[in-house]
Structure formats: structure tokens, C-alpha cells
Amino acid sequence: MKRWFLILAAAVSLSGCGYNDFQSLDEASKSAWSEVLNQYQRRADLVPNIVATVKGEASFEQDTLTKVIEARAKATSIQVTPETLNNPEAFNKFQQAQGELSSALSRLMVVSERYPELKANQAFRDLRVTLEGTENRITVARNRYIESVQEYNVLARSFPTNITAKIFSYAPKPNFSVQNEAQISTPPTVDFSAPKK
């Protein structure tokens, strides 16, 4: 009788431990992360075509192109492994490199507005549309990853599953963050008053 009681107690305690939930959510977050990486790779693959098309404009600002090329090289040089998801420092380093590439590409697109021949180039227009679509895909993939990490982290921090998390070393995963959080938290100043004459 005592043996059956112990088996029943073990079964009841294990059913609420969340071990299987951790396995499921860990795999979901890895899958979502893979999609983020897939979209970042798609963007990185577009950069050489964009740069080659823009180089055709002889008077284009070389400094802008150089920054895009350097940002791409830096973003693609970071080795991403499954451990990156569990290492906040490595995750942040990867996120910064991708942010620098996004920024460089944004500057390139803004500067390209000053070159009518480039704007009229069909290949450049097609690449620009593809880049915009890729940026949207990155946003969607990042949002899915954020949601999967949130679900995982809630499980890792909630009782009684937090005990399972500690026993099996399921630490909360890092998530995407905004690089300039303090800057964007300050509301912009808007002045509709008439300019002084």
C-alpha cells in the first residue's frame, strides 16, 4: 500500500512539474529563433546586390556604401549557436550587429533619394521593394520569437514550474530589446506655433 502511495504521489508531483512544457516551449523558441536567423540571412544576401547596383551610380557617396559593407561583414561574422539564446551577452552582441546593419541600410536608402538616376533604375527599385519586404519578415519573425520567449520565461518563473527550471537549469531566455530605450521614451516636442518673422 505504501509503495502505491509513493508511486501516486510521484506521478501527481511530476504531472505539475512542467518538464514537458519546458521541452515544448524550448523547442518552440528555437524554431522561432531559426526563422529570425533565416530572415536576417535573407537580408544579408540582398546587400551585395544592392551595393553592386548602387555602385553603378558613379557619383554615389562611397562612405555610405562602405558602412553598409562593413555592417554586413560584422553581422555575418558573428557565429550564432543554440547557446546564443541562453547567453544574454552573446545575444546582445548579435542584436547590436544586426541593428548596425539595419541602420546602415536605412542610411543607404535615405541617401539614394538624392540620386534620380538611381531611383529610376528598375533593378534598384526591385531590390528596394525586396529589402522592405524582408524587413517586414524580420519584424514578424522577431515578434514570434518574442512571444515564444515570453511563454517560456513565464513558465520558468512561475511556481511550481520554477522549481523544475532550477533543477534542470532552464534559465529565462534573453529577449530582443530596443537599443535607444531612454531616447525613445522621451516624447517628442511638437510646436504648432507660427514661426517668428
UniProtKB/TrEMBL annotation:
It holds the Pfam family LemA. InterPro entries: LemA-like_dom_sf, MamQ_LemA. It is a single-pass membrane protein. Its main location: membrane. It is found in: Membrane. The keyword Plastid does not apply. PANTHER family: MEMBRANE PROTEIN (PTHR34478:SF2), PROTEIN LEMA (PTHR34478). This is LemA protein. The lineage of its organism: Bacteria, Pseudomonadati, Pseudomonadota, Betaproteobacteria, Burkholderiales.
